[in-house]
From TrEMBL, chain A:
Native source organism of the sequence: Kutzneria viridogrisea
PANTHER family, per the entry: ABC TRANSPORTER ATP-BINDING PROTEIN, DOXORUBICIN RESISTANCE ATP-BINDING PROTEIN DRRA
Bilayer-spanning residue ranges: none
Membrane topology term: Peripheral membrane protein
GO MF term (any one): ATP binding
UniProt protein name: Oleandomycin transport system ATP-binding protein
TrEMBL record, chain B:
Topology within the bilayer: Multi-pass membrane protein
Higher taxonomy: Bacteria, Bacillati, Actinomycetota, Actinomycetes, Pseudonocardiales
Domain spans labelled ABC transmembrane type-2: 27-254
Any Gene Ontology biological process: response to antibiotic
Keyword Cell membrane: yes
Protein name (record): Transport permease protein
Entry keyword set: Antibiotic resistance, Cell membrane, Membrane, Transmembrane, Transmembrane helix, Transport
Organism: Kutzneria albida DSM 43870
Subcellular location: Cell membrane; Membrane
PANTHER family per UniProt: NODULATION PROTEIN J
Amino acid sequence: MDTAIETVGLVKQFGDKRALDGVDLKVPAGTVLSLLGPNGAGKTTVVRILATLTRPDGGRATVCGNDVVREADLVRRLIGLTGQYASVDENISGWENLYLVGRLTDLPRRRARARADELLEQFGLTAAAKQLPRSYSGGMRRKLDLAASLVGEPRVLYLDEPTTGLDPRSRNALWAAVRARVATGTTVLLTTQYMEEAEALADSVVVMDNGRVIEAGTTDQLRARVGGKVLHIRPTRAADLAQVLRALAGAGLAGASLDAGAGLVRMPIAGDAELTTAVGALASSALPIAGIDTHVPSLDEVFLSLTGAQPAGSGDAAQVRA
Amino acid sequence: MTGQRALARHSLAVARRNLVQVKNDPGQLLAATLTPVLFTVVFLYVLGGAISGGQAGYQQYLMPGIMAQTVTVASIATGIGLNLDFGSGVMDRFRSLPIARSAVLTGRILADACRLVLGQLVVLGFALVIGFRVQTGVLPAVGAVLLMSLYGIALCWIAAYVGLRIRSMQTVQTIGFLWLTPLQFASSIFAPASTMPDWLRVFVEVNPTSLVTDTCRGLLIGGPVAGSAAGALLWIAAMIAVFAPLAVREYRRRP
Ligand SMILES: Nc1ncnc2c1ncn2[C@@H]1O[C@H](COP(=O)(O)OP(=O)(O)OP(=O)(O)O)[C@@H](O)[C@H]1O
Ligand SMILES: [Mg+2]
């Protein structure tokens, strides 16, 4: 498979702060990679280097084989960027923003106009097309930003915390838009603080902390490594707890434990197949069940397990490495 | 070749964006045109009598000067606009697009040139309404507006350099006013250099604003222009030759 994004030993120094300390990434074309990490981990710095906005101090980075420093202009023809902070022009309307990007990406006038209309429609912003982004809500602005990064139909798309501050509906709409892009073969690099978002969109995940990659793999692998999901089963009658345990064991599922105090059975699940088996086992046992849900480890829990420490606030490296 | 064409296209797209900004916030344009009106009122009606013993003659002298003052003041907007762009996220968008680095700069100057010409026409219109008369002809008058605008563009490049070089918006404004003050007031905008003490006259006579003003005065109400026009054009060429590359370099250097 072709490599769309590759970084080798990427280093970035800000004063005496080493923001990136040898970051290696490899994103196959047409896939979604999620960069996960706490504040100050270096996610935005990686994105900015890959978007030709910041020069690396060491190592190299290529996009579709083009060096981000020496062949920046070629890279810019391939990429779309939705930065962490809105990069829309507050003083011209939403439509004008998209038309401007269209003209700057060399679309003919008529095509640029049509593309602006099209994207506003797609993101439900048609009614606000003529308004200034100043009057937009945070979510609307975020969507306009994403729309602006899609005008040129980029082959590689960077999304830096695209859904921070979005309500669930907007978030789903944005996820759907990203999936639609991926379906057309676009490669996506997505940074996020939410494990859930990584799971919803990404083929693979890279966890960063203090400017380094500390873990990489598919979401399933990662989840398995940090204990995976946990299934909570709450039978209607507390007396059935042991029965539930037996039903699960009977289906070949190990590791379930009984929490009489909470009135539920906990079972770690390593993959989606195990979940199906568990539900099947419960169904055939015909025990009345009041509640069943899966628990995804939060980013905090992932970090706790991967670094053995609390996620670091930006800057206090010593605390984590200690 | 295609590079030049793309640069022109991208500059036009950015210029359009800047003009749409002006359209969306007509307040800034209003302020830029009200300033000369205000100065006219102060100098012509408040001080005119004291300066030259009456309004009628002084008006013919003053109004070309007011036009020059308009472009001088309006040029700061270039620096402020660029400074604001860099302070907002818009620049990240521009810089991640495959456009020539200088398109943002040339687009800004292009839009400001439109603004300058428009400002000139408004002030000239206002002058005509209050009784100013062009005593030459249409062609020299067009020449005067063009020369003023050209001078304005040269000042815009300086403002662009300042706006990019200095990070703080307040400082950009302060510096703008600091260096524009002698440029406006130690000039022949409000009174002829011949009425000033020698030490000041030395400065006033080489001040590009004086040279531009004197040329335009000649073009609008008659009188010799050749000498001052040569000086004015030389200044304009020199200012652009020095500050356009400096501004572009500063633009490239900004992270
Ligand atoms: N322009 C800059 N000047 C100085 N330090 C910087 C600059 N940009 C980033 N840093 C530092 O580099 C480190 C990494 O920052 P970065 O923005 O990449 O983190 P992040 O993972 O995106 O964090 P967040 O989740 O808060 O967005 C931080 O310690 C930050 O303080
Ligand atoms: Mg960030």
